[in-house]
Write a structure and sequence with these properties.
Length: 456
Protein backbone atom coordinates (compact mmCIF):
# COMPACT_ATOMS: atom_id res chain seq x y z
CA UNK A 1 0.00 0.00 0.00
CA UNK A 2 1.33 3.35 -0.90
CA UNK A 3 1.63 5.99 1.78
CA UNK A 4 0.55 9.48 1.08
CA UNK A 5 3.08 12.18 1.92
CA UNK A 6 2.83 15.87 2.03
CA UNK A 7 5.09 18.27 0.35
CA UNK A 8 8.67 18.08 1.43
CA UNK A 9 9.63 20.71 4.07
CA UNK A 10 13.12 21.67 5.22
CA UNK A 11 14.07 20.27 8.63
CA UNK A 12 13.90 22.82 11.51
CA UNK A 13 17.09 24.25 12.81
CA UNK A 14 18.17 22.83 16.23
CA UNK A 15 19.40 25.22 18.95
CA UNK A 16 20.58 23.67 22.24
CA UNK A 17 19.10 25.17 25.46
CA UNK A 18 21.54 27.20 27.60
CA UNK A 19 22.77 25.71 30.82
CA UNK A 20 21.01 27.05 33.93
CA UNK A 21 21.94 26.94 37.51
CA UNK A 22 19.91 24.72 39.79
CA UNK A 23 16.78 26.39 41.03
CA UNK A 24 16.41 28.75 38.09
CA UNK A 25 13.25 28.71 36.07
CA UNK A 26 13.33 27.17 32.65
CA UNK A 27 15.25 24.24 31.37
CA UNK A 28 13.97 20.74 30.75
CA UNK A 29 11.53 19.48 33.32
CA UNK A 30 11.77 15.96 34.61
CA UNK A 31 9.83 13.36 32.71
CA UNK A 32 7.70 12.63 35.75
CA UNK A 33 6.98 14.57 38.95
CA UNK A 34 8.11 11.50 40.90
CA UNK A 35 11.38 11.30 39.08
CA UNK A 36 14.14 13.58 40.34
CA UNK A 37 16.15 15.51 37.93
CA UNK A 38 19.67 14.34 37.44
CA UNK A 39 22.31 15.90 39.73
CA UNK A 40 23.83 18.93 38.12
CA UNK A 41 27.52 18.81 37.58
CA UNK A 42 29.84 20.77 39.90
CA UNK A 43 30.48 23.29 37.19
CA UNK A 44 26.83 24.21 37.11
CA UNK A 45 26.83 24.93 40.93
CA UNK A 46 29.85 27.17 40.88
CA UNK A 47 29.41 30.87 41.46
CA UNK A 48 28.92 32.88 38.30
CA UNK A 49 31.89 34.87 37.15
CA UNK A 50 32.32 38.23 38.93
CA UNK A 51 32.00 41.18 36.60
CA UNK A 52 35.07 43.25 36.23
CA UNK A 53 35.28 46.12 38.77
CA UNK A 54 32.81 44.59 41.28
CA UNK A 55 34.28 43.97 44.82
CA UNK A 56 34.51 40.40 46.00
CA UNK A 57 31.85 39.16 48.41
CA UNK A 58 33.24 38.57 51.94
CA UNK A 59 33.49 35.05 53.22
CA UNK A 60 30.76 33.58 55.36
CA UNK A 61 30.93 34.71 59.01
CA UNK A 62 32.88 37.86 58.23
CA UNK A 63 30.00 40.07 57.18
CA UNK A 64 30.01 42.00 60.51
CA UNK A 65 33.65 42.93 60.48
CA UNK A 66 33.34 45.45 57.69
CA UNK A 67 29.97 47.09 57.42
CA UNK A 68 30.86 49.85 55.06
CA UNK A 69 30.77 53.58 55.67
CA UNK A 70 28.58 54.84 58.49
CA UNK A 71 29.21 51.83 60.79
CA UNK A 72 30.57 52.64 64.27
CA UNK A 73 34.11 51.43 64.82
CA UNK A 74 34.63 48.69 67.36
CA UNK A 75 36.11 50.03 70.61
CA UNK A 76 39.18 48.36 72.06
CA UNK A 77 38.83 46.89 75.58
CA UNK A 78 41.91 48.86 76.60
CA UNK A 79 40.08 52.08 75.79
CA UNK A 80 37.22 51.03 78.04
CA UNK A 81 39.65 50.12 80.82
CA UNK A 82 41.31 53.51 80.56
CA UNK A 83 37.96 55.29 80.68
CA UNK A 84 36.91 53.30 83.77
CA UNK A 85 40.15 54.02 85.62
CA UNK A 86 40.02 57.71 84.71
CA UNK A 87 36.41 57.95 85.86
CA UNK A 88 37.32 56.27 89.16
CA UNK A 89 40.13 58.74 89.85
CA UNK A 90 37.93 61.69 88.93
CA UNK A 91 35.02 60.58 91.14
CA UNK A 92 37.35 59.85 94.07
CA UNK A 93 38.96 63.27 93.73
CA UNK A 94 35.57 64.99 93.72
CA UNK A 95 34.38 62.92 96.71
CA UNK A 96 37.26 64.01 98.95
CA UNK A 97 36.87 67.69 98.12
CA UNK A 98 34.15 68.18 100.73
CA UNK A 99 36.09 66.61 103.67
CA UNK A 100 39.25 68.50 102.76
CA UNK A 101 37.46 71.83 102.40
CA UNK A 102 35.58 71.43 105.68
CA UNK A 103 38.50 70.39 107.89
CA UNK A 104 41.70 70.76 105.86
CA UNK A 105 44.35 68.25 104.91
CA UNK A 106 46.32 68.70 108.15
CA UNK A 107 43.42 67.53 110.29
CA UNK A 108 43.00 64.37 108.22
CA UNK A 109 46.71 63.58 108.26
CA UNK A 110 46.83 63.93 112.06
CA UNK A 111 43.53 62.12 112.66
CA UNK A 112 43.41 59.16 115.03
CA UNK A 113 41.64 56.15 113.47
CA UNK A 114 39.96 54.40 116.38
CA UNK A 115 39.11 51.18 114.48
CA UNK A 116 42.07 50.84 112.14
CA UNK A 117 41.41 47.11 111.62
CA UNK A 118 38.47 48.10 109.40
CA UNK A 119 41.02 49.09 106.74
CA UNK A 120 41.33 45.37 105.91
CA UNK A 121 37.99 45.62 104.08
CA UNK A 122 39.59 48.01 101.58
CA UNK A 123 41.15 44.93 99.97
CA UNK A 124 37.67 44.09 98.61
CA UNK A 125 37.28 47.45 96.86
CA UNK A 126 39.27 46.50 93.69
CA UNK A 127 37.18 43.32 93.36
CA UNK A 128 33.99 45.33 93.69
CA UNK A 129 35.30 47.78 91.09
CA UNK A 130 35.93 44.95 88.61
CA UNK A 131 32.49 43.40 89.06
CA UNK A 132 30.84 46.80 88.69
CA UNK A 133 32.67 47.78 85.50
CA UNK A 134 34.48 45.36 83.19
CA UNK A 135 33.16 42.19 84.79
CA UNK A 136 29.48 43.06 84.52
CA UNK A 137 29.13 41.87 80.90
CA UNK A 138 29.68 38.24 81.83
CA UNK A 139 26.82 38.37 84.33
CA UNK A 140 24.26 40.09 82.09
CA UNK A 141 21.47 38.00 80.49
CA UNK A 142 21.84 37.66 76.73
CA UNK A 143 19.34 37.55 73.88
CA UNK A 144 20.36 35.71 70.69
CA UNK A 145 19.35 37.29 67.40
CA UNK A 146 20.14 36.47 63.83
CA UNK A 147 22.36 39.42 63.09
CA UNK A 148 23.46 42.64 64.75
CA UNK A 149 24.42 44.31 61.51
CA UNK A 150 21.63 46.85 61.73
CA UNK A 151 22.43 47.65 65.36
CA UNK A 152 26.13 48.06 64.68
CA UNK A 153 25.41 50.36 61.77
CA UNK A 154 23.39 52.64 64.02
CA UNK A 155 24.91 55.74 65.63
CA UNK A 156 26.36 55.66 69.14
CA UNK A 157 25.72 58.32 71.73
CA UNK A 158 27.66 59.55 74.73
CA UNK A 159 25.87 57.12 77.04
CA UNK A 160 27.78 54.17 75.61
CA UNK A 161 30.95 55.65 77.08
CA UNK A 162 29.27 56.09 80.51
CA UNK A 163 28.22 52.46 80.94
CA UNK A 164 30.79 51.88 83.71
CA UNK A 165 30.00 55.07 85.63
CA UNK A 166 27.42 53.50 88.03
CA UNK A 167 29.91 50.83 89.06
CA UNK A 168 32.56 53.48 89.65
CA UNK A 169 30.21 55.55 91.82
CA UNK A 170 29.27 52.54 93.90
CA UNK A 171 32.90 51.52 94.41
CA UNK A 172 33.98 54.96 95.62
CA UNK A 173 30.95 55.11 97.93
CA UNK A 174 31.92 51.77 99.52
CA UNK A 175 35.51 52.94 99.99
CA UNK A 176 34.30 56.09 101.77
CA UNK A 177 32.00 53.97 103.91
CA UNK A 178 34.89 51.77 105.01
CA UNK A 179 36.91 54.85 105.96
CA UNK A 180 33.96 56.19 107.93
CA UNK A 181 33.65 52.89 109.83
CA UNK A 182 37.28 53.27 110.92
CA UNK A 183 36.03 56.35 112.86
CA UNK A 184 38.60 59.08 112.32
CA UNK A 185 38.86 61.39 115.32
CA UNK A 186 40.57 64.76 115.39
CA UNK A 187 42.20 65.88 118.62
CA UNK A 188 41.84 69.61 118.74
CA UNK A 189 44.64 71.64 120.23
CA UNK A 190 44.65 71.71 124.00
CA UNK A 191 43.18 74.85 125.47
CA UNK A 192 44.90 76.26 128.53
CA UNK A 193 42.81 78.39 130.84
CA UNK A 194 42.80 79.56 134.42
CA UNK A 195 39.95 77.88 136.26
CA UNK A 196 38.48 78.30 139.71
CA UNK A 197 38.21 74.90 141.36
CA UNK A 198 39.45 72.34 143.83
CA UNK A 199 40.82 68.80 143.69
CA UNK A 200 38.38 66.19 145.00
CA UNK A 201 38.80 62.45 145.51
CA UNK A 202 35.64 60.45 146.20
CA UNK A 203 36.35 57.22 148.11
CA UNK A 204 33.43 54.77 147.74
CA UNK A 205 32.92 51.64 149.85
CA UNK A 206 32.00 48.50 147.83
CA UNK A 207 32.14 45.98 150.67
CA UNK A 208 29.41 43.40 151.24
CA UNK A 209 27.60 45.56 153.80
CA UNK A 210 26.61 47.96 151.01
CA UNK A 211 24.04 45.34 149.90
CA UNK A 212 21.79 46.39 152.75
CA UNK A 213 18.47 48.03 151.92
CA UNK A 214 18.39 51.77 152.56
CA UNK A 215 15.20 53.51 153.56
CA UNK A 216 14.70 55.70 150.57
CA UNK A 217 11.95 57.35 148.66
CA UNK A 218 12.90 57.51 144.95
CA UNK A 219 11.68 61.10 144.94
CA UNK A 220 14.46 62.03 147.38
CA UNK A 221 17.14 60.97 144.92
CA UNK A 222 18.09 63.13 141.93
CA UNK A 223 17.85 60.47 139.22
CA UNK A 224 16.43 56.96 139.60
CA UNK A 225 15.56 56.24 135.96
CA UNK A 226 18.19 53.48 135.72
CA UNK A 227 16.82 51.52 138.67
CA UNK A 228 14.46 48.57 138.07
CA UNK A 229 10.80 49.31 138.63
CA UNK A 230 9.47 48.48 142.12
CA UNK A 231 13.00 47.53 143.23
CA UNK A 232 14.19 48.29 146.76
CA UNK A 233 17.12 50.70 146.80
CA UNK A 234 20.30 49.43 148.42
CA UNK A 235 23.07 51.46 149.98
CA UNK A 236 25.33 51.07 146.96
CA UNK A 237 22.50 52.12 144.60
CA UNK A 238 21.87 55.30 146.57
CA UNK A 239 25.60 56.03 146.85
CA UNK A 240 26.11 55.69 143.08
CA UNK A 241 23.15 57.97 142.31
CA UNK A 242 24.33 60.65 144.73
CA UNK A 243 27.94 60.49 143.51
CA UNK A 244 26.83 60.74 139.85
CA UNK A 245 24.71 63.79 140.69
CA UNK A 246 27.66 65.24 142.60
CA UNK A 247 29.87 64.80 139.52
CA UNK A 248 27.37 66.41 137.13
CA UNK A 249 27.19 69.52 139.33
CA UNK A 250 30.92 70.17 138.99
CA UNK A 251 32.18 72.70 136.47
CA UNK A 252 35.79 73.52 137.25
CA UNK A 253 36.70 70.94 139.92
CA UNK A 254 39.08 68.14 139.15
CA UNK A 255 37.64 64.91 140.48
CA UNK A 256 38.76 61.32 140.89
CA UNK A 257 37.23 58.14 142.32
CA UNK A 258 38.66 55.31 144.41
CA UNK A 259 36.70 52.16 145.28
CA UNK A 260 37.62 49.79 148.06
CA UNK A 261 36.61 46.60 149.78
CA UNK A 262 39.28 44.23 151.00
CA UNK A 263 41.70 46.25 148.83
CA UNK A 264 41.64 49.75 147.33
CA UNK A 265 41.62 50.52 143.61
CA UNK A 266 41.89 53.78 141.65
CA UNK A 267 38.89 54.02 139.34
CA UNK A 268 39.99 57.39 137.94
CA UNK A 269 42.63 59.99 138.84
CA UNK A 270 41.57 63.64 139.20
CA UNK A 271 40.15 64.78 135.87
CA UNK A 272 37.83 67.31 134.26
CA UNK A 273 36.19 64.68 132.04
CA UNK A 274 32.96 64.46 134.01
CA UNK A 275 31.17 62.43 131.35
CA UNK A 276 33.72 59.62 131.51
CA UNK A 277 33.80 59.76 135.29
CA UNK A 278 30.01 59.51 135.57
CA UNK A 279 29.96 56.59 133.15
CA UNK A 280 32.53 54.69 135.21
CA UNK A 281 30.61 55.22 138.43
CA UNK A 282 27.31 54.12 136.90
CA UNK A 283 28.82 50.76 135.89
CA UNK A 284 30.09 49.91 139.37
CA UNK A 285 28.73 46.83 141.16
CA UNK A 286 29.57 44.93 144.31
CA UNK A 287 31.07 41.98 142.46
CA UNK A 288 33.83 43.90 140.66
CA UNK A 289 36.17 43.64 143.67
CA UNK A 290 36.51 41.50 146.77
CA UNK A 291 34.00 42.93 149.25
CA UNK A 292 34.56 40.51 152.09
CA UNK A 293 36.29 43.17 154.22
CA UNK A 294 36.71 46.93 154.58
CA UNK A 295 40.15 48.52 154.20
CA UNK A 296 39.54 52.16 155.14
CA UNK A 297 43.25 52.86 155.78
CA UNK A 298 44.29 51.64 152.30
CA UNK A 299 41.52 53.63 150.60
CA UNK A 300 42.35 56.87 152.41
CA UNK A 301 46.07 56.41 151.79
CA UNK A 302 45.48 55.83 148.05
CA UNK A 303 43.38 59.01 147.82
CA UNK A 304 46.07 61.08 149.50
CA UNK A 305 48.73 59.58 147.24
CA UNK A 306 46.78 60.56 144.11
CA UNK A 307 46.84 64.22 145.20
CA UNK A 308 50.41 64.45 146.46
CA UNK A 309 51.42 66.34 143.28
CA UNK A 310 48.37 68.55 143.13
CA UNK A 311 49.00 72.30 142.94
CA UNK A 312 45.54 73.23 144.18
CA UNK A 313 45.30 75.02 147.49
CA UNK A 314 42.22 72.97 148.42
CA UNK A 315 42.49 69.20 148.40
CA UNK A 316 39.43 67.33 149.55
CA UNK A 317 38.72 63.64 150.17
CA UNK A 318 35.10 62.50 150.59
CA UNK A 319 35.04 59.09 152.31
CA UNK A 320 31.73 57.26 152.00
CA UNK A 321 31.46 54.02 153.99
CA UNK A 322 29.10 52.02 156.21
CA UNK A 323 31.55 49.86 158.15
CA UNK A 324 34.66 49.59 160.25
CA UNK A 325 38.25 49.22 159.11
CA UNK A 326 39.09 45.50 159.43
CA UNK A 327 41.57 44.86 156.58
CA UNK A 328 44.38 46.43 154.61
CA UNK A 329 48.10 47.07 154.91
CA UNK A 330 47.84 50.76 155.86
CA UNK A 331 46.40 51.69 159.22
CA UNK A 332 43.85 54.51 159.42
CA UNK A 333 46.17 56.43 161.78
CA UNK A 334 49.01 56.43 159.25
CA UNK A 335 46.63 57.53 156.50
CA UNK A 336 45.44 60.40 158.71
CA UNK A 337 49.02 61.60 159.20
CA UNK A 338 49.65 61.49 155.45
CA UNK A 339 46.50 63.52 154.81
CA UNK A 340 47.52 66.16 157.32
CA UNK A 341 51.04 66.35 155.84
CA UNK A 342 49.68 66.84 152.29
CA UNK A 343 47.03 69.33 153.39
CA UNK A 344 44.03 67.15 152.46
CA UNK A 345 40.73 67.70 154.21
CA UNK A 346 38.72 64.52 154.69
CA UNK A 347 34.92 64.65 154.86
CA UNK A 348 33.48 61.36 156.11
CA UNK A 349 29.94 60.26 155.30
CA UNK A 350 28.64 57.37 157.40
CA UNK A 351 25.76 55.36 155.88
CA UNK A 352 23.65 53.74 158.57
CA UNK A 353 24.05 53.71 162.35
CA UNK A 354 24.62 50.04 163.14
CA UNK A 355 20.96 49.02 163.47
CA UNK A 356 19.48 45.92 161.93
CA UNK A 357 18.97 46.18 158.19
CA UNK A 358 17.44 43.97 155.55
CA UNK A 359 19.66 42.20 153.03
CA UNK A 360 18.53 40.12 150.08
CA UNK A 361 19.90 36.60 150.32
CA UNK A 362 17.92 34.66 147.72
CA UNK A 363 14.92 34.54 145.39
CA UNK A 364 11.83 32.38 146.04
CA UNK A 365 10.15 30.03 143.56
CA UNK A 366 7.98 32.88 142.25
CA UNK A 367 10.99 35.03 141.43
CA UNK A 368 10.46 37.41 144.34
CA UNK A 369 13.49 38.52 146.39
CA UNK A 370 13.82 37.14 149.89
CA UNK A 371 15.26 39.39 152.61
CA UNK A 372 16.80 38.61 155.97
CA UNK A 373 17.68 40.95 158.81
CA UNK A 374 21.30 41.38 159.82
CA UNK A 375 23.55 43.89 161.53
CA UNK A 376 26.76 45.43 160.20
CA UNK A 377 29.18 47.06 162.67
CA UNK A 378 30.20 50.69 162.16
CA UNK A 379 32.90 52.78 163.79
CA UNK A 380 31.66 56.37 164.01
CA UNK A 381 34.50 57.23 166.38
CA UNK A 382 37.10 56.43 163.71
CA UNK A 383 35.26 58.40 161.03
CA UNK A 384 34.81 61.36 163.35
CA UNK A 385 38.51 61.30 164.30
CA UNK A 386 39.57 61.22 160.64
CA UNK A 387 37.44 64.28 159.86
CA UNK A 388 38.48 66.21 162.95
CA UNK A 389 42.24 65.71 162.58
CA UNK A 390 42.28 66.63 158.88
CA UNK A 391 40.07 69.71 159.16
CA UNK A 392 36.99 68.15 157.59
CA UNK A 393 33.57 67.25 158.92
CA UNK A 394 31.67 64.06 159.77
CA UNK A 395 28.14 63.32 158.45
CA UNK A 396 25.72 60.52 159.23
CA UNK A 397 23.14 59.50 156.64
CA UNK A 398 20.45 56.99 157.61
CA UNK A 399 18.40 57.42 154.45
CA UNK A 400 18.81 58.55 150.85
CA UNK A 401 17.69 62.10 151.58
CA UNK A 402 20.29 62.47 154.32
CA UNK A 403 22.98 61.07 152.03
CA UNK A 404 22.21 63.65 149.34
CA UNK A 405 22.16 66.47 151.88
CA UNK A 406 25.53 65.37 153.26
CA UNK A 407 27.19 65.73 149.86
CA UNK A 408 25.66 69.16 149.31
CA UNK A 409 26.82 70.27 152.76
CA UNK A 410 30.36 69.31 151.83
CA UNK A 411 30.21 71.53 148.79
CA UNK A 412 29.09 74.52 150.79
CA UNK A 413 32.23 74.36 152.92
CA UNK A 414 34.78 74.03 150.16
CA UNK A 415 36.82 77.08 149.27
CA UNK A 416 38.03 77.86 145.78
CA UNK A 417 41.52 78.18 144.37
CA UNK A 418 42.92 78.98 140.97
CA UNK A 419 44.69 76.39 138.85
CA UNK A 420 45.61 76.03 135.21
CA UNK A 421 43.40 73.55 133.37
CA UNK A 422 44.31 71.63 130.24
CA UNK A 423 41.15 70.92 128.26
CA UNK A 424 41.40 68.68 125.21
CA UNK A 425 38.41 68.38 122.89
CA UNK A 426 37.76 65.73 120.28
CA UNK A 427 35.79 65.77 117.05
CA UNK A 428 34.49 62.82 115.06
CA UNK A 429 35.29 63.17 111.37
CA UNK A 430 33.26 60.27 109.98
CA UNK A 431 30.21 62.46 109.07
CA UNK A 432 32.36 64.21 106.48
CA UNK A 433 32.90 60.83 104.80
CA UNK A 434 29.36 59.51 105.15
CA UNK A 435 27.75 62.48 103.38
CA UNK A 436 29.59 62.11 100.01
CA UNK A 437 29.16 58.32 100.20
CA UNK A 438 25.39 58.67 100.51
CA UNK A 439 25.28 61.16 97.64
CA UNK A 440 27.27 58.80 95.40
CA UNK A 441 24.92 55.90 96.16
CA UNK A 442 21.91 58.09 95.34
CA UNK A 443 23.50 59.21 92.07
CA UNK A 444 24.27 55.58 91.20
CA UNK A 445 20.64 54.57 91.68
CA UNK A 446 19.44 57.56 89.67
CA UNK A 447 21.70 56.79 86.70
CA UNK A 448 20.75 53.10 86.65
CA UNK A 449 17.03 53.89 86.73
CA UNK A 450 16.95 56.83 84.32
CA UNK A 451 19.91 57.60 82.10
CA UNK A 452 21.88 54.36 81.81
CA UNK A 453 19.24 51.67 81.77
CA UNK A 454 20.27 48.34 80.27
CA UNK A 455 18.30 45.79 78.25
CA UNK A 456 17.83 42.96 78.79
Amino acid sequence: MSERRGPDLPPPAFTPAPERAPGELGGVAPASPWQASPRAPEASRAAPPRPEGQPARPARGTELRSLGPGAAPRRSPWVRLGLAVGATLAVAALAVVYPLVERGSRVWLDADWRYAWVFAFLALVPLLWWFGTLGQDSRRPRLRIGTVAAIRRGPRGVRTYLRDLPGVLRTVAVALGVLALARPVSTLSDQTSDEQGIDIMVVLDLSGSMRAVLDADPKDLPNTSDLPRNARITRVDAAKIVVEDFITRRRTDRMGVIVFGKDAYVLSPPTLDYQLLGSLVSKLSLDVIDGSATAIGDALGAAVARMRRSDAASKVVILLTDGDSNAGMVSPEFAIEAAVEKGCKVYTVQIGNGDEVQVQDSVDVFGQPHYVKTRFPVNPELLNRIAAQTGGQHFVATDAKGLAQSFHAVLDQLEKTRFEAQIASYEDLFPFLVLPAVLLVALDALLRAWLLRRFP
